Amino acid sequence: MTVVPSGGPGGPPPPAGCEVRAADPPKGFGLFACASCPAYTDMFTEEPLFAMQHSGNRRVVAACARCCGFVHSVPLQLEVIFGESRFAPLLAALGDLPARWQETAGEGSAVVVRCKQGCGEIYCSEACRDLHFQHSHNLLCVGPLTEDHPLLRFKYHALEHADTLLLAAQVFAFLINKAKAAGGGEQVMKGLMQELLCFCHAPFREACRPPPGRSKDAEFYAHADGLVQEAAALLRAALEPYAPVEVGALFAAGPNFFAEVLGLFEYNNIDLEVNSPLGQLLENRAKALAQHISNPQAVAELKQLEALLREKEWVMRCIWGEETTGIFGDEVDVAQGTVDAQPMDSVMQAAEQGNDAEVASAAMAQARAEVAQLSLEQLLQGPWPAMHGTALFASVARMNHSCAPNMKVVFPGNSARLTATAVLNISPGHELCICYVNQEADVQTRRRRLLEYGFTCSCSRCLSEDSTTLRKAQKRLK
């Protein structure tokens, strides 16, 4: 049975020029325009309430733990991508070139700010570090903790099962800090909890989707409930010493509120994607070197740059996929050609773990042969790993779905700050809608994916495509 998520009024104020109010049934609340906005113009920008980089993405991108932007250090970014021992000769041969590339591009010296307590989190600035600590990291930093501490055990549990458990911990720590700042106490915390539940939510067991090809049977529910209960127990044990009254309110109904927050993420979070600055920086450097081709030093540096790009392209072909983007596709959609299939995911990891070692080794060798045939120009055009994460935005969470949306959201800068842009002319009173699924998919695929959100879409586009499909079927039967 599909569970319809619930929500209500309240929560953070909407952006200027917008209002939150009841939408047409069967929708709940929605975001509406109070002023005109011409097509292809920006309507508002917004910072996330909560955001995080996917754990698998940390394998290839050094991102700020607060703003999710690329840390301003070319040497560090290359060390992260080429972190395996097999790449040590490559990095050694580059020497100080990465730092020089950054300075030559007018980007200044590398800046890497680390958590003062030694937990390993990195930041793009001291301001981001301090703000993150005040927001939630003060209660979630594992730097000073022993291996048997419940917070460390919670984080291991999250890394094994689901990234969003870490984001839920961020929410709980933030609520504790906010309650304390407001005077503390059970009633203050209950009010903050209710504010969060203004967004659509349902228990995690109902909101999460099962693996492709299986239904939500008793075994699935038992697994989901066990995952949540263990995580909630560990998090409660980790946080209770710091704020027993407030934590008691958070867990007054056992793991229920924790499960609701996880379910809220399933309905409201959107994918973060921040493009890498490295591609453009190194392309500019290659063009500059090409203008001094008679200079032996320039020729030598260009060869080193080409070797770096060739290794990067090979790494991308070997590991870039679901684990490093956090975007897990619907196998049925992929089979029907309605979404782009992900590249082979982590063939290097498969080889190292002995899983189908021969297949993985063959795929790696094939990728190496393909990359060897690429020209420098082709290598320069190859994509660098983007930062991928997940985030909850207050205004975007209020936007309802349409298969023919009038809005889109993008991340134009080096951070998780989004821009909401009109794709149609919008007049006062118009509801602002985005597309929750792949907009290019056919109507049957879109509707199947939208069932995860608890509704069947009957927008004008779906009704029109339904009619077209029916006419084609009737014509075939004649």
Write up this protein:
48% of the residues lie in helices and 10% in strands. Helix 6 (164-181) packs across helix 7 (186-196). It is built from 21 helices and 12 strands. The model is unreliable at 331-345 (pLDDT under 50). The longest helix is centred in the middle third of the chain and has 24 residues, at 296-319. Strands 3-11-10 form a 3-stranded antiparallel beta sheet. With 478 residues, it is mainly α. The protein has helices at 74-81, 88-94, 97-104, 126-140, 150-161, 164-181, 186-196, 204-207, 218-239, 244-250, 256-268, 278-290, 296-319, 322-325, 331-335, 347-353, 357-372, 376-381, 394-398, 443-450, 460-477; strands at residues 18-22, 29-33, 42-46, 50-53, 113-114, 122-123, 270-274, 387-392, 400-401, 407-410, 418-422, 433-434. This is SET domain-containing protein. Pfam families: SET (PF00856).
Summarize the structure.
This protein is mostly helical.
Query: How many domains would you count in the coordinates?
Result: 3
How much helicity do the residues have? 40-55%
Strand content: 5-15%
Q: What is the overall number of helices?
A: 21
Number of strands: 12
Biggest sheet layout: 3 strands, antiparallel
Strand order, sheet with most strands: 3-11-10
Q: Which radius of gyration do the C-alpha atoms yield?
A: 24 Å
Structural class per helix/strand content? mainly alpha
Distance between the termini: 37 Å
